[in-house]
TrEMBL record:
<keyword id="KW-0472">Membrane</keyword>
<keyword id="KW-0732">Signal</keyword>
<feature type="region of interest" description="Disordered">
    <location>
        <begin position="229"/>
        <end position="267"/>
    </location>
</feature>
<feature type="compositionally biased region" description="Low complexity">
    <location>
        <begin position="242"/>
        <end position="256"/>
    </location>
</feature>
<dbReference type="InterPro" id="IPR015920">
    <property type="entry name" value="Cellobiose_DH-like_cyt"/>
</dbReference>
<feature type="transmembrane region" description="Helical">
    <location>
        <begin position="275"/>
        <end position="292"/>
    </location>
</feature>
<keyword id="KW-0812">Transmembrane</keyword>
<protein>
    <recommendedName>
        <fullName>Cellobiose dehydrogenase-like cytochrome domain-containing protein</fullName>
    </recommendedName>
</protein>
<keyword id="KW-1133">Transmembrane helix</keyword>
<dbReference type="Pfam" id="PF16010">
    <property type="entry name" value="CDH-cyt"/>
</dbReference>
<feature type="signal peptide">
    <location>
        <begin position="1"/>
        <end position="19"/>
    </location>
</feature>
<feature type="domain" description="Cellobiose dehydrogenase-like cytochrome">
    <location>
        <begin position="30"/>
        <end position="215"/>
    </location>
</feature>
């Protein structure tokens, strides 16, 4: 009886924590009020949101897509939001957005690639040509959140996912409540995304439902003026930086936790963390309780 009770309690706790972490699940339809764009969207209870729109199936040669990122910020208005085009953060193309500190160009968006789990392991992506062009109505910073909505030209490449599948593609998300090292620089080093207890994990994107006949109209919402900030990387390692915004004020953010990309230097693949760290800890606790019971300690 005691064993059954322990197992049931742990299972309930693990289920609850996993749901709170935002990991798992598949995208659903979301209509963005600011832009009028209908996204396939993934959302967490903490306020992180990812949105995706793909070209229609009749435009199979189109390598562009539209991305929406919303993420909470700390009390100083700092932090960043990221989406990785793969189940694990290491290897695939990653797109990141953060407040620049400039009123004329409030959000910087940048393509990245992670070679490991430390902040210093995430570097500018230069393998394929990519251009990020913001959609103004969906790109802003307010007192609590960052919103970045942009056309990602060239993002459907060998480092992202196969858009021809009618099923789901695996994505990984992360966000941080700590300022990046140099907010005005598109090549800034990122901060740790776990030091303040931020959520991260993986989910599935329904690619068939992400395709939209309105894709061309949505793309036209993107800014095209010469003053628009676009981040472009050229293949072969050549890199063109985004126009530099005015330096951001110092953010009184908590310490980033040094090099520990997953807290205290722990290196854990997201494929093994889908349930969330709290759920894993709960199940580990049950194991300890069973061991103590077997030894007649409890």
């Amino acid at each position: 009886m005691r064993s059954s009770t322990l197992l049931a309690t742990a299972a309930a706790l693990a289920s609850t924590v996993s749901a709170q972490s935002g990991s798992g699940g598949v995208t659903t339809q979301y209509a963005d009020a600011a832009t009028g764009i209908n996204f396939q969207s993934f959302t967490t209870p903490a306020g992180y949101r990812f949105g995706l729109v793909l070209p229609p199936a009749t435009d199979a040669s189109n390598k562009d897509l539209i991305i929406h990122l919303t993420s909470p910020l700390n009390s100083a208005g700092a932090g960043w939001a990221g989406i990785d085009f793969g189940r694990s953060m290491v290897g695939p193309l990653m797109l990141v957005a953060w407040p620049s500190g400039s009123t004329s160009n409030p959000v910087i968006m940048a393509p990245r690639v992670a070679r490991g789990y430390k902040p210093s392991d995430t570097t500018p992506y230069t393998t394929n040509a990519i251009t990020l062009t913001p959609i103004a109505k969906g790109t802003f910073v307010n007192s609590t959140h960052l919103s970045a909505t942009f056309v990602c030209s060239g993002c459907l490449n060998s480092d992202s996912f196969d858009p021809t599948t009618s099923g789901t593609a695996s994505f990984a998300y992360a966000y941080s409540l700590v300022a990046v090292a140099t907010p005005a620089d598109a090549n800034s080093r990122l901060s740790d995304h776990t030091s303040q207890g931020e959520g991260y994990g993986s989910f599935g994107a329904d690619l068939a439902s992400a395709r939209s006949a309105d894709f061309g109209a949505y793309v036209k919402l993107a800014q095209t003026a010469a003053t628009t900030t676009t981040t472009t990387t050229a293949g072969g390692g050549e890199e063109t930086r985004a126009p530099t915004a005015a330096p951001a004020p110092e953010a009184s953010a908590p310490a980033s936790g040094g090099e520990g990309g997953h807290g205290n230097g722990e290196v854990v693949d997201m494929e093994y963390r889908q349930m969330g760290p709290g759920a894993v800890a709960a199940l580990a606790l049950v194991g300890v309780l069973y061991l103590l019971q077997a030894l007649s300690v409890i």
